Amino acid sequence: MSNLRSAAAAMMTLTLLTTACGTTARDEPEPAATDTSVPAATPPAPPTGSNEETGKATAPAALRFTAQTLDGKTFQGESLAGKPIAFWFWAPWCTKCLSDAPAVKAAAAQHKDVAFVGIAGLDTEAAMKQFVQRTDTSDLVHLSDPKGAVWTKLGVSQQSTFVFMKPDGSLEKASGPLGQDGLEEHLRTLTAQQTP
Q: What pTM does this model have?
């Protein structure tokens, strides 16, 4: 009788363990397959490539914006798709921005393969235009963003900030002033893995 109770207890324990393990295994979702070619800490870049119908590059989400240039023209962020881009976020009264201006001007003249776009905010359009004239950076495209819509879109909260975007849509931010050497270092990284 004692052996029968022991056997029944053992059977009951085994049944409970099996049922508990089985329930847990069935209730938990199976782990998702991971792409081992992309490090876990790096989110996948937004899809880029080309639209088969138009042949144009597909714009990542960060480039889906419309803004006004300081000379009053409409600017579509999507027009930059597929290019390496250096966005420079500045404000007219910012001394760091003023010190970054000569390096930005020189880098834009040297790196014709990179689209440089100044994005002005935090002041009036008249003050923005005055800053461009004072820094002699009128060769660059400068956007007027007094409400900070593009700043918010690209996750920028302070000036002087640079956002470097590779053709695949991946971003890198850097706070200025960077100076000529710092800016050159970021531009080398930006253009390093470009495909022809």
A: 0.69
